[in-house]
Design brief:
Number of strands: 19
CATH superfamily of one domain: Transferase(Phosphotransferase) domain 1
Distance between the termini: 68 Å
Radius of gyration: 31 Å
Oligomer: single chain
CATH topology of one domain: Transferase(Phosphotransferase), domain 1
Shape: globular
């Protein structure tokens, strides 16, 4: 390829080059389209001026020989491609074009840290951004080190932050991969390769795309960010990356280099002999704690440094927890929406759905105001799912695009499909149950076909669980763009199934078909429905897929008829009469085919439902016998293992649950209930990393299905990893832009991250799709935190209209009125909150959080006796944690009892309450001039 040639518009391998987006002496980068997978990528070409020289030719302008440049280029591809982590730029492949090597990699949109710090003039980044980026990069380094890869060139130019806030580690051109991926082994600093290639300890290593690099002959890396051992060309391990990253953290936090110097020797001398100016001196606006972390990362001696990137990450996370709005685990566990993987009915309105995240500590802050989409926690959902399992709910995915055939209206480029509840002629309950069972199995088979194909499917069981009865409701709930509506009619011995494929935005029918079969040919009916629906979506079923779809475990059409009815009844197993009907028809199926393993496994779940409804333990053993018998039949598939997994999780045998759900996932990796059960079992076994990996594997299988990201986001919220949760919810929003739920979740976590402007945007988008109390409450909370109390009150009013029986929105509305100066309106709202709270207290008189809220309401109404009584009961009912202590601060301060309030403040801070939350609480502004208050916040 000619030097300086512009490749725009050309096709290289299966990539169509779109435009040049960057370049330097080492190479040039183009934006391109992957014609096979339909995604945008970046193509990085090694400079022709380097590759043009032979090993004995003239020197290239970069001071790197051709051999060394090619070696480094290949090393970058090998090192990064061996790693799979959201914080590491993904490498798709390496190839050549006209003799010039190039790397195909993930296309990133955003800025490098060097650009972010430099700006118009060097300046520190916001504290929260320093922490968020630091945590992400430390986690990426930990992943690399665990695979035996050491980067060796950590610097701001090699750290990238996308427009969505995801930090990425770039350029592994100087990386070293050891032969022991489980740990990082020490090796000479000059060792150059990922394999057994010779070291080039004194090779020229100037990286000309960054002007701040070493002189020729230096050890590998960039001088300003080298570790002492790297500068001395001594043996290295992962701790050298930690030192370099410590220097980057210093620069992010202060806007200054940790080791400045006019010359390279001066910089090297500073690295070896001098400590940088203390962080707090370079940037007095920083809260305490960050300086100590950076100081430890920059220790001259490796033994005094962080011994792993994981340790550095954990300390940064702990600092973020201390310095931002945090919720107790017990509170967070009752906050976020149900997992898309879970198979449970929707919570009853006014019982669990839409509860705020109230800690009982009425700081007039986010703590008492945040709502989430469905108000039910990941842990709670999984427990409900395992106690009340609805069969055949699956994880589904989108990949690519679909077009219509000749003469047909085109389909969306990425299909998201809802299979709506069946309509049976005359409302016949038996026919309706059969139809819902049929749709459950058809949906499961479409889900199997969705892997590596351009569509996703929302299972009929999810549609029923969310009480969705229309395509418009499915669009708002799940962001679907297509719906399948089915109609069933029976005439004598004939069964007619009709369906219509409808565009959710326009309401137009895009495809339609009808099938009529005799009752004796029901096995063929399912195949024909799947094949017809697949054709309508432009899918050609391959022979191997056809064989897998045809596996049912029985050849008796009548037995299969009864089995489908059983599945249909179990779609609403919360009704005792449905459980009885399911038992009846499944027993009939087994009479017709005693070796029908799927029916036996479903019967085992029926017995577990009976235990759940009656709490009679005899049903547990009856269920266990049925599940084990199903496995013995050898044709129950993953459902048999799921049956035992449900029992094991429900009875506390978590190791057995993990084993059984793991076997189910192996047999059917697209089964969302098995994935959810496996993840929950790992959490119960205190193995959160395994639980996280379980969700990640599900996402990898269906990378374009928003529900997978949403479920992982919920997991992160419950684990208090809010930045990671935000990234997952952002992915969910991108994939389901018409779903109000994804935006509610995103808005809630943005509030937890103290990003009010982003929370406003997400909440407003959610409201535009479907107004909900949760979205209005989150929007109001964002305005409250922005000290826009009138706007907060307006939106809390809307939340109250939509959820008038909940005390929390009334209390939040009262706070907004009070701090906005509308005292009469505030008094009325506090009264309503008290009335509802006292009613709630009749259900659980020892609810410490509720008692704390009531204490706050009474204090705002000036009713001291009642306030102190509720406060005392709150402190005695629950463990004396920092949130209850801070609630005491607020109540006593409201009554002007400053000395007592400060005593409680000292206790709360000593217990770990966040000083930043204290400093921002509007209720405590009267204390800001008090020297005792000031000393407490300084930690004195």
């Amino acid at each position: 390829m000619d030097e300086g040639a512009d490749l725009g518009g050309r096709t290289i391998s299966h990539y169509r080059v779109l435009e040049r987006i960057g370049g330097g002496s080492m190479g040039v980068v183009y934006k391109a389209e992957d014609l096979r997978l339909g995604r945008r990528v970046a193509l990085k070409f090694l400079s022709a001026s380097i590759t043009a020289y032979g090993s004995g030719g003239s020197p290239s302008p970069s001071t790197l020989s051709r051999t060394e440049a090619l070696d480094r280029f290949e090393r970058e591809a090998k090192a990064a491609s061996a790693l799979n982590h959201p914080g590491i730029c993904t490498i798709y492949g390496i190839d050549q074009f006209e003799g010039q090597p190039f790397i195909a990699m993930e296309l990133l949109e955003g800025r490098t840290l060097r650009e972010m710090i430099a700006g118009a003039a060097p300046a520190p980044l916001p504290f929260q951004q320093v922490l968020n980026v630091g945590i992400q990069i430390a986690d990426a380094l930990d992943a690399a080190h665990h695979q035996g890869v050491i980067h060796r060139d950590i610097k701001p130019a090699n750290l990238f932050v996308t427009d969505r806030g995801q930090a990425k580690l770039l350029d592994f051109g100087l990386a070293k991969r050891t032969s022991h991926p489980a740990r990082v082994k020490a090796y000479p600093a000059g060792d150059a390769g990922l394999d057994d290639s010779p070291a080039f300890e004194n090779s020229p290593t100037v990286m000309l795309e960054d002007p701040e690099l070493t002189n020729p002959g230096a050890a590998l890396g960039t001088i300003a960010y080298m570790s002492p051992e790297q500068a001395m060309a001594e043996s290295l391990d992962g701790r050298t990356d930690i030192f370099s990253f410590g220097a980057v953290l210093y620069e992010m936090a202060t806007g200054c280099r940790a080791f400045p110097g006019a010359t390279m020797p001066a910089v090297a001398s500073a690295i070896l002999n001098r400590d940088p100016e203390p962080v707090i001196s370079a940037n007095p606006a920083l809260p305490p704690g960050l300086g100590e972390i950076i100081q430890k990362a920059l220790a001259k001696k490796k033994a005094e440094r962080y011994q792993s990137a994981a340790e550095l990450r954990d300390d940064l996370m702990e600092l973020r927890e201390r310095s931002s709005f945090r919720l107790p685990r017990s509170v967070a566990a009752g906050s976020f929406p149900s997992s898309e993987f879970a198979s449970s009915p929707a919570p009853a309105p006014g019982v669990v759905a839409g509860r705020t995240l109230s800690s009982g500590a009425r700081a007039r802050t986010l703590k008492s105001k945040l709502w989430a989409a469905a108000g039910i926690s990941m842990a709670a959902v999984i427990l409900v799912a395992l106690a009340v399992p609805a069969l055949r709910q699956r994880l589904l995915g989108i990949i690519g695009g679909v077009t219509g055939g000749p003469g047909q209206l085109p389909l969306p480029s990425q299909v998201s499909l809802a299979v709506l509840p069946v309509t049976a002629e005359g409302g016949d309950p038996r026919l309706t149950a059969f139809g819902n069972g049929l749709l459950a199995t058809v949906t499961a088979r479409l889900m199997q076909l969705s892997v590596n194909r351009p569509f996703q499917v929302i299972p009929a069981s999810q549609i029923q669980a969310k009480k969705v009865t229309s395509l418009e409701g499915a669009r708002q709930e799940f962001g679907v763009n297509l719906g399948l509506e089915f109609d069933l009619q029976r005439s004598g011995d004939l069964l007619r199934v009709s369906y219509t494929l409808i565009d959710s935005n326009s309401g137009r029918a895009l495809r339609a078909d009808s099938l009529t079969v005799p009752q004796s040919d029901l096995l063929a009916l399912e195949d024909r429905v799947v094949e017809s629906a697949a054709r309508s979506l432009g899918i050609a079923i391959q022979p191997e897929e056809q064989r897998l779809l045809g596996v049912r475990g029985t050849r008796e059409a009548s037995a299969y008829d009864y089995y489908l009815q059983g599945l249909g009844y179990l779609q609403e197993a919360i009704k005792p009469e449905n459980v009885e009907s399911a038992q009846t028809v499944l027993n009939q199926a087994l009479k017709l085919d005693p070796r029908f393993g799927l029916a036996e496994a479903a019967l085992g779940e029926v017995y577990w439902q009976k235990y759940d409804l009656t709490r009679d333990r005899k049903w547990v053993e009856t269920a266990r016998t049925a599940c084990e018998r199903a496995l013995q039949m050898g044709n129950a598939g993953g459902e048999g293992h799921e049956c035992l997994g449900v029992l094991a999780n429900g009875t506390g045998a978590y190791s057995q649950a993990a084993e059984q759900f793991g076997l189910a996932v192996q047999l059917n990796p697209t089964d969302d209930r098995a994935v959810t059960g496996l993840a929950q079992a790992y959490q119960d076994l205190n193995q959160p990393l395994m639980a996280e990996q379980t969700y990640k594997r599900a996402i990898a299988l269906r990378a374009h299905y928003w529900g997978g990201y949403n479920a992982l986001g919920i997991f992160y919220v419950n684990d208090q990893e809010y930045e990671k949760a935000a990234q997952m919810f952002q992915q969910a929003v991108a994939l389901a832009p018409d779903s109000y739920r994804a935006y509610v979740d995103l808005g809630a976590v943005e509030l937890l991250l103290n990003r009010q402007a982003d929370a406003v945007q997400a909440s407003q988008r959610s409201i535009a799709i479907r107004p909900t109390a949760q979205a209005y409450s989150n929007l109001a909370t964002a305005y409250f935190e922005l000290v826009q109390y009138d706007k907060a009150a307006q939106n809390y009013q809307e939340a109250v209209k939509l959820s008038p029986s909940q005390r929390e929105p009334w209390g939040n509305l009262a706070d907004a009125y009070y701090y906005g100066g509308h005292l009469s309106e505030a008094r009325n709202a506090y009264r309503q909150a008290v009335t509802l709270g006292e009613e709630d207290l009749k259900v659980n008189p020892n609810d410490s959080a509720l008692l704390g809220d009531l204490a706050g309401y009474y204090s705002m109404l000036g009713e001291r006796k009642r306030a102190l009584n509720a406060l005392d009961r709150s402190l005695n009912a629950g463990k004396l944690d920092k949130d209850l202590m801070f609630n005491a601060v607020l109540v006593h301060n409201q009554f002007g009892e400053t000395d007592v309030a400060l005593e409680w403040l000292a206790k709360a801070l000593a217990a770990g309450y966040s000083p930043s939350v204290v400093s921002q609480a509007p209720a405590l502004k009267n204390l800001h001039a008090d020297p005792r208050y000031q000393r407490l916040l300084r930690g004195q």
